[in-house]
């Protein structure tokens, strides 16, 4: 009944409006002329629908605002029912999104600092700081995970012994008796002298071994906290796996975000036009910020022009010049390969010599403490020295290869990455040879005879990475404060010719990026053996940000070769992902294949670290063990890999189809632009004046009488002139007939019917005269060659002659 009464009420209102018509609002009439239905606006949903349609109208922004104000003044009832208030909810959600974005911009860490760097050094350097900031938060997140799930539970909980949760139910690979024999033998010598305490802090030995920094501090017993129990071995292993997985996910998301921005920003045809006319931020209100933005745009344009200049020079090279260039590149790459091999052998020799020197029984007693400290740091010093000297050689030889500025940075980064990863790989191989020495005792699995006696080899591995990350941080601080700052002071305050010629140092993007990638690689390699190494990496990145900011703003000049940084963040992340996958190999091999120490660590009772997972699963119900066995079986993994391969193939095929569609649409847009340009040229040839050159003359108000009859058709014009046009002349005369209709006698608005859409429009959007449409399929001649087939209506030639 309510529905019938509502329908009857609407009919009564409609009859009343027909009998007593009300005066419509001019704004509403304009909307109806544009094809929008505004006659029946009852609730907020209708208003919201019309407002969305107004956004798509081809009219000035002021008119859209006027339409919006008129709609907001209309009195309508609020939405009700199950979807009631959806319009207001959408508006509130939109306001919340805007507020969230504004707050994220305001609360962005170091946002204003990055703008200062961008204005002073350019976008290439600011991309380094964005990358550094991202790594800082990544390591902070890793540190919080380890603290919440490993360190804090172990400190605040009490040991409950080796319960069934730790030993499992009827599984092999668990030996508690050996642990009770070997654990008391792991003793650390702690000295009370200040010099020894400092040395132990720098080396991670002595009193540092029994702190939460290293693997040997944690136990394998079951932990209890009130009524809750906590299996430490499983928590340690799962936390490590989650850290690696989350690191991979965050890197993938960051890479995809940067790749999406690159796809949106790429427009090679109009790159300079977009930067000049669309690159300015009109929301800037401060003079200093505007100057920084101006410098940023300037440096970006300089980078683009330098790359275009290089491509032009490459095209103009002769065959002899190309032959000399490729020959030089071949010999330079061979030289780089020899340097990498020599660096790896040097690290291996130094590590082996240090191991044999420290293995002597009287090595520490017959030598001074400083000598012993230097010998223990010798592998780390060698790696750090190679990482500082060899990239300088790479930077010199790459200039002879004549690459683009962007590719110069990429090839230097790749070579330096191989150097640093190769040096770490040699170090890991040397440590692996020491750890897996065959001459060991059976009970505690400790080396004897020619093998090193390592009671806790995991802590020994963690100490090596600890020393590397400490030394790397000290070198970065020393280079910034001990080299770049004095050089800046000398070159600016000293008037000597040598100082002026040397000048301040440049901000080397490849070297600085590789420094932080190297630090992050050490963090990923060492966090399993030294759980609190991410805390050191977080502190290192935090201090390094301010040091590099000081260096970028005051100590160094922008790079001499302008660098286009549109793809820098993406490439930096790809380099980091390569380092990440290489770091996963030794850590994963340790978890699966190496036998853990039996006197320290949370896996001391297991033959392998993964046995802790088997012990936990053995306590599950039988049905749950069956499900876990199915999902971890080889057949399920093979099926999963096949499905992933099919998904990847489908995604790549769809991406390729979309790319081809984009190319086709671009070509179609170009052809449409040529069509319009052809019409403009023809009109200019016929009239002798550029379309739109004359100002629109004032016209009398529209008359209400019939349209004028003193119009001549094309055939009448031809009969008057006594000539019969050809097909080509007929096309020209159809366009020329536009001049024959008097402008003063034509009303302002003459409605017409669009033959394509049958939509009633106003002649104000087209011409002030009627023109017969031209079908290009019927036009012969060269004008119709290589053109898209389209019907030219009056809207194609809407000009004032």
UniProtKB/TrEMBL annotation:
Residues 1-21 have a biased composition (Basic residues). One of its GO terms (cellular component) is plasma membrane. Residues 1-30, 690-730, 744-767 are annotated as: Disordered. Residues 700-709 have a biased composition (Pro residues). InterPro entries: TMC, TMC_dom. The keyword Transmembrane helix applies. Keywords: Membrane, Transmembrane, Transmembrane helix. It is a multi-pass membrane protein. It is found in: Membrane. Residues 690-699, 757-767 have a biased composition (Basic and acidic residues). The chain crosses the membrane at residues 134-156, 227-250, 330-350, 370-397, 417-435, 524-547, 568-589, 627-651. Residues 456-566 form the TMC domain. Belongs to the TMC family. This is Transmembrane channel-like protein 7 isoform X7. The gene is LOC111119421.
């Amino acid at each position: 009944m309510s529905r019938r009464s509502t329908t009857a009420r609407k009919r009564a209102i409609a009859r009343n409006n027909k009998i007593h018509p009300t005066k419509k609002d001019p704004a509403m009439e304009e909307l109806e002329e544009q094809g929008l239905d505004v006659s029946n606006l009852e609730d907020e949903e209708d208003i919201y629908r019309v407002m969305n349609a107004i956004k798509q109208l081809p009219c000035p922004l002021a008119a859209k605002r006027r339409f919006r104000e008129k709609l907001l003044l209309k009195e309508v009832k609020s939405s009700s029912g199950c979807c009631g208030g959806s319009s207001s909810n959408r508006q509130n959600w939109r306001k919340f999104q805007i507020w969230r974005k504004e707050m994220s911009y305001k609360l962005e860490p170091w946002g204003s600092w990055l703008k200062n760097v961008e204005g002073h050094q350019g976008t290439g350097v600011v991309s380094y700081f964005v990358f550094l900031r991202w790594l800082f938060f990544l390591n902070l997140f890793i540190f919080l995970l380890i603290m919440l799930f490993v360190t804090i539970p172990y400190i605040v909980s009490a040991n409950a012994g080796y319960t069934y949760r730790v030993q499992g139910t009827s599984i092999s690979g668990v030996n508690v008796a050996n642990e009770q024999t070997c654990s008391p033998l792991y003793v650390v010598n702690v000295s009370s002298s200040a010099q020894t305490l400092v040395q132990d802090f720098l080396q991670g030995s002595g009193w540092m071994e029994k702190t939460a920094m290293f693997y040997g501090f944690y136990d394998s017993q079951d932990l209890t906290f009130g009524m809750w129990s906590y299996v430490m071995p499983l928590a340690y292993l799962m936390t490590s796996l989650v850290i690696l997985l989350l690191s991979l996910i965050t890197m993938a998301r960051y890479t995809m975000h940067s790749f999406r921005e690159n796809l949106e920003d790429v427009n090679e045809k109009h790159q300079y036009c977009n930067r000049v006319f669309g690159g300015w931020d009109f929301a800037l209100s401060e003079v200093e910020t505007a100057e920084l933005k101006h410098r940023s745009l300037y440096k970006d344009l300089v980078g683009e022009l330098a790359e275009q200049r290089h491509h032009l020079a490459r095209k103009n090279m002769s065959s002899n010049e190309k032959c000399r260039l490729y020959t030089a590149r071949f010999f330079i790459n061979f030289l780089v390969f020899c340097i990498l091999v020599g660096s790896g052998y040097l690290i291996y020799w130094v590590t082996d010599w240090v191991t044999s020197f420290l293995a002597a029984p009287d090595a520490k007693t017959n030598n001074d403490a400083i000598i012993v400290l230097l010998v223990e740091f010798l592998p780390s010093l060698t790696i750090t020295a190679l990482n500082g000297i060899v990239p300088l050689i790479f930077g010199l030889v790459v200039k002879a290869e004549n690459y683009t500025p962007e590719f110069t940075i990429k090839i230097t980064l790749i070579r330096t990455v191989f150097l640093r990863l190769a040096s770490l790989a040699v170090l890991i191989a040397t440590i692996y040879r020491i750890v897996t020495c065959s001459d060991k005792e059976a009970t505690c699995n400790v080396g004897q005879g020619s093998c090193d006696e390592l009671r806790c080899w995991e802590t020994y591995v963690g100490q090596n990475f600890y020393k590397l990350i400490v030394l790397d941080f000290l070198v970065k601080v020393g280079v910034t404060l001990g080299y770049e700052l004095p050089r800046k002071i000398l070159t600016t305050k000293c008037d000597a010719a040598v100082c002026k010629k040397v000048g301040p140092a440049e901000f080397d993007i490849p070297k600085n990026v590789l420094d932080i990638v190297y630090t992050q690689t050490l963090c990923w390699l060492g966090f399993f053996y030294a759980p609190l190494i991410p805390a050191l990496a977080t502190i290192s990145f935090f201090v390094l940000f301010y040091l590099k900011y000081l260096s970028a703003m005051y100590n160094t000049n922008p790079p001499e070769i302008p660098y286009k940084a549109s793809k820098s963040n993406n490439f930096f992340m790809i380099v980091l992902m390569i380092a990440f996958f290489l770091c996963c190999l030794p850590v994963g091999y340790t978890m699966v294949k190496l036998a853990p120490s039996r006197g320290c660590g949370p896996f001391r009772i297991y033959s392998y670290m993964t046995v802790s997972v088997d012990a936990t699963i053995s306590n599950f119900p039988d049905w749950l063990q069956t499900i876990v066995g199915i999902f971890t079986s080889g057949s399920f993994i093979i099926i999963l890999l096949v499905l992933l391969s099919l998904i990847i193939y489908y995604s790549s095929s769809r991406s390729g189809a979309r790319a081809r569609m984009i190319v086709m649409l671009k070509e179609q847009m170009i052809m449409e632009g040529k069509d319009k340009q052809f019409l403009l040229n023809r009109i200019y040839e016929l009239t002798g004046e550029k379309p739109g050159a004359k100002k629109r003359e004032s016209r009398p108000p529209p008359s209400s009488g019939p349209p004028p009859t003193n119009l001549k058709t094309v055939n009448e014009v031809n009969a008057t002139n006594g000539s019969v046009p050809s097909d080509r002349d007929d096309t020209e005369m159809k366009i020329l007939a536009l001049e024959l209709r008097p402008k003063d006698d034509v009303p302002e608005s003459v409605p017409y019917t669009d033959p394509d859409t049958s939509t009633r429009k106003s002649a104000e959007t087209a011409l002030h005269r009627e023109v017969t449409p031209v079908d290009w399929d019927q036009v012969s001649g060269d004008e119709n060659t290589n053109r898209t087939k389209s019907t030219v209506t009056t809207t194609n030639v809407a000009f004032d002659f």
